[in-house]
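Records of this kind hold a single protein each, on a pair of labelled lines. Below, a sample record shows both lines together.
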Amino acid sequence: MACSLGLIPENPGPPADVEQIKRQIGYILVFFPGRTRDMWMNALSTVIQPLDSSQSLPLYQQLQRILRDAIEQEVLVDHDALPSERDIATEFGVSRITVRKAIKGLAAEGLIERRQGAGTFVTPRIQKKFSKLSSFSEDMASRGWHPHSEWLERTAGTATPKEASALGAAPGSAVYRFHRIRFANDIPLALEFSTIPVHGLPSLDAVGDSLYEALAAHAHRPVRAVQRLRAIAFTPEQAILLGVQAQDPGLLIERRSYLKNEQMVELTRSFYRGDVYDFITELVV
């Protein structure tokens, strides 16, 4: 099927250099605002392949993969607006229902977001710097996102031998446990499992949306932390909670936080989605 804007080339060659395409798109947006749609889609055409109805993979999943690749290769970058469903359907020669299913899948992955009355946009990847000790709520709020939590468990108990060893406390010491799904703009981003010695908080109910706000309110906000990071594959149970697939890549960060007197006040294990997080460490000589 011929395409009016040339999004799908008749004889697709190898993908063009991604940096070149990003520069081309930037040039279009700055100097040709009246022709952004057509020229932007032509630029995008150099890194995609046509849909193939003979494949066993459904068309909507092929389209979803194409758009996902464009986002991951940074041809579509943070805050970029996607063309309308009608334009995408026309260019790929598919129904709007097919496009809608692909868009819905990308939204479920957290790669794009729909803004009422504005359109569909590429969700910004979250860059977390290890050089600053901050909470999830603070990180999201600094980006203009709305953080909130869904509680999995909020209990008082005694420290297990493993927790006691990590906290530098005696086995059986009293602790509070806070287990949550962490969201930003209604997208589940992380699973967080925190253990706090009872000296850090007056009660379980002291913690609302932000653990660090609660600790600070009682003069127990940590001043330094030691973190360990490793790659993981999500278990089926974790995947269900985060809205991803089992065995999808994730990042596990264990944080041990300390007060000024070097007393440990927090042990947290967080499981972050690998498809939306970039962790950055600055190295100097």
About this structure: Residues 18-31 form the longest helix (14 residues). The longest strand covers residues 147-158.
